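Service request form, structural biology core

Requester: graduate student, group of Dr. S.
Request type: structure prediction, single chain
Budget code: on file
Notes: please return the result as structure tokens.

Sequence provided:
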Amino acid sequence: MTVFIGADWLDDFFQATIVVDINMRQLREQVKTARKFIEENPEVSMVELNASDPVEVDGELFEDMEDLAENGCLIPYPHSAYEEKTEHYMRYGRVNVSTHSVYYICSPKNWDVDLSFYVDMEEEE
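Core staff response, request fulfilled:
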């Protein structure tokens, strides 16, 4: 499992930072299968896969917070320790696969909004 971190804005005032464990080997296989399915079925443009739910963490703990929020990507998190935060109750982890991109999506419990993070499938484990 690889631990990733990402940050994004819920609205104009509230930001959430998440940490999520993703088994990249398994995800690569699932993406390969999903893209083959999309290729064989032209009426399908996207496949949604189940994923681990995120853990919300304090954004002040991480350097370059603004860079994380602006790039919209999940990036590998080199540390194993983090403190869970329950401000927005992030959950509903899923992965959206299309022919050209893979996104990790999650949502806060009581908000009608999705956070979307690009997953670089070229990264090494």
